[in-house]
Amino acid sequence: MDEPLHPETIAVTAGRPARTAGAPLNSPIVPASTFHHGGDISYAREGNPGWEAFEVALGALEHGHCVTFASGLAASSAILDELPVGARVIAQRAPYFGVTEQLRERERRGQLKLETHAELTVAGLADSIAGANLVWIESPTNPMLDVVDLPAVIGVAKEAGALVVVDNTFATPLGQTPLTLGADLVLHSGTKLIGGHSDLLLGAVVAADPAFQRRLLDRRHATGATPGVLEAYLALRGLRTLPARLARAQATASELAARLAAHPRVDRVRHPGSGTIVSFETAGTGEDAQRVCEACRLIVHATSLGGTETTLERRARYASERAAGTPETLIRMSVGLEHVDDLWRDLDRALTVGAGS
Ligand SMILES: *Cc1c(COP(=O)(O)O)cnc(C)c1O
Q1: Phi/psi zone of residue 322: left (φ > 0), alpha (ψ -120 to 50 degrees), beta?
Q2: Of 1, 235, 302, 331, which has the fewest Cβ atoms less than 10 A away?
């Protein structure tokens, strides 16, 4: 039997057209709303060869069956639409704010019962897991970067018969593959590290069970939450270089986390030891932290994450994050591909002129 391929190799090779003479190496962009009758696809909401190429590649990396959507939130909404009315959902206190909003809105309408935990742990779930329909896990968490013990928590949830979703946007399949740990579904915002260039919006669900993939394909068809053909093309192009970008950005993130921890104007650094996101709390007030963000010249003061350029923002600028208890002085930084010393010079200067001025 052939040795299984490494993720770096899968990222480059999966989802290519067949190697026949004259065939292109990349799946072409197919802009079409309708197709000649008699084939697999007759109308564009049913599918597109470019979506499938991306789905084959991401599915291979996550060890499951992928369906791509218009955005990460279109993907999470499709998952929640699969729940029976009255479902019990267990989640962390504040998953990604858009997901939190989808859960709370469904709760307000009486479609589900939401139970949130400050932390998802085996001990914390002991009394509540029985009868739960869904456990929604984000690890590492945003923006606190706490790490959930995935094998243990997934194990307890599966034993109780709950469906388990892991939002793998921050870790990517290079960091962890939750389906191999027993999860049922993986969610991705392809907008972030997978796309990798801050130029598209796209989401995906990867299911362990091909029957669940079928249900999600039907739901995408029914709701029309389809990705654009250009977006799917760019997301697959981004996926090809994800392993290399991630390795480089992770190394820079670790180095910056270490330097920040020794900086006199930084009170606390959060970095789980892997990943490209570093959260740090500056000395002084929220306004001081805001000034640090605005004093950056190389690092971009903007939301979102996972691009080639390093970005940062004070998360408590958002009411939803303040309500979730995010510290006023916490700055979340998404580390990109610039040279570490250039980034550090900018950060060090911004901290010096910003904090406590
Ligand atoms: C951005 C993000 C989402 C939502 O994805 P969109 O593509 O913006 O709709 C979901 N989860 C996490 C962790 C995210 O960072």
Answers
A1: alpha
A2: 1
Atom of ligand 1 nearest to the CA of 203: 7
Q: Which residue do the tokens 């986390």 mark?
A: 257
pTM over 0.90: yes
Q: DSSP secondary-structure letter at 242?
A: H
Residue closest by Cα to atom 7 of ligand 1: 72
Q: What is the mean pLDDT of residues 73-80?
A: 98
Can you give the residue range of the structural domain that contains 205?
7-241
Average pLDDT, the chain: 97
pLDDT (0 to 100) of residue 357: 47
Q: List Cα–Cα distances, 248 to 193, 253, 308, 332, 337, in angstroms.
A: 13, 9, 10, 19, 7
CA dihedral 91, 94, 100, 103 (to 10 degrees): 30
Given a contact cutoff of 8 angstroms between Cβ atoms, the answer to whether 121 and 151 are in contact is no
50 and 174, same domain (yes or no): yes
For residue 41, being part of any structural domain is answered with: yes
Instruction: List beta partners, residue 266.
Output: 282
d(CA 110, ligand 1 centre) in Å:
25
110 within some domain: yes
> What CA–CA distance (Å, rounded) separates 52 from 70?
14
User: What separation in Å is there between the alpha carbon of 31 and the centre of ligand 1?
Assistant: 26
